[in-house]
């Protein structure tokens, strides 16, 4: 089975890295980028459509059919926006896209980038963790062939890519030490992208993938 993947968020660090790994992988034959603005990627595998309203995909159904994977890397820090806006972007937008895709592509594997510390109980004290937990739970209830929640902590960026966060670039040289001291809290962007491809092809025993799982299957 060759992978035909839709990627959300390729104009950010995580999405750019996942796109990079997908382009490099012989297991991926086709990639559709969903963006609000052109990402500038030029590769024979890649197509891109611009959607201004991520809460309404009905007019783009014809472009979204025929894909068997979605790598959802779109998100925002809870520190960057207010409470209501964070819920709108993290939960409402994600579920809007996922519901549209699950109805169009029931054989799809959906991979969602969440984060270390996400609260599956939805009852904890940390607001962002509750919102992420509800997002994960509701994604897992949709009729996809399979869905996986990726929970990376610190992600070492891929050298040479443009979208890496400044703090990630600064901390990146310390990654070997961080890996030894905090193996449950870190992974690389290469591992994250490769892990998404791996679970699409072969599945995985867990629905929630922590850093150790990402590193294990993404090497």
What does this structure look like?
The model has no long low-confidence stretch (mean pLDDT 94). This protein has a 7-stranded parallel sheet with strand order 3-2-1-4-5-6-9, with helices on both faces. Helix 1 packs across helix 7. The chain contains 8 helices and 9 strands. The protein is α/β, with parallel strands linked by helices and 219 residues long.
N-to-C series of helices and strands = EHEEHEHEHEEHHEHEH
> What Rg is obtained from the alpha carbons, in whole angstroms?
16 Å
Distance between the termini: 21 Å
- Taken as a percent bin, the fraction of beta residues is 15-25%
Average pLDDT metric: 94
Shape: globular
Count, helices:
8
How are the strands of the largest sheet arranged?
A: 3-2-1-4-5-6-9
Task: Give the structural class.
Answer: alpha/beta
Helicity range: 25-40%
In the predicted model, the low-confidence regions spanning at least 5 consecutive residues are none
The number of E-state strands comes to: 9
Main sheet: strands, sense, barrel: 7 strands, parallel
């Amino acid at each position: 089975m060759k992978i035909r993947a839709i990627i959300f968020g390729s104009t950010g660090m995580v999405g750019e890295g996942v796109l990079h790994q997908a382009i490099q992988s012989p297991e991926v034959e086709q990639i559709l980028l969903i963006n609000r603005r052109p990402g500038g990627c030029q590769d024979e595998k890649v197509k891109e459509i611009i959607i201004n309203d991520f809460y309404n995909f009905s007019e783009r159904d014809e472009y979204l059919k025929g894909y068997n994977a979605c790598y959802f890397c779109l998100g925002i820090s809870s520190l960057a926006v207010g409470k209501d806006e964070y819920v709108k972007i993290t939960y409402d937008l994600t579920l809007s896209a996922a519901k549209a895709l699950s109805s169009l592509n029931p054989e799809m594997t959906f991979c969602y980038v969440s984060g270390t510390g996400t609260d599956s109980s939805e009852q904890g004290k940390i607001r962002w963790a509750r919102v992420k937990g509800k997002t994960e739970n509701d994604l897992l209830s949709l009729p996809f062939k399979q869905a996986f929640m990726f929970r990376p902590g610190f992600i070492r960026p891929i050298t040479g890519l443009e979208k890496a966060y400044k703090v990630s670039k600064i901390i990146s040289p310390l990654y070997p030490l961080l890996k030894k001291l905090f193996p449950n809290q870190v992974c690389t962007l290469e591992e994250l992208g490769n892990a998404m491809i791996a679970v699409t092809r072969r599945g995985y025993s867990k629905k929630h993938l922590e850093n150790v799982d990402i590193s294990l299957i993404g090497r």
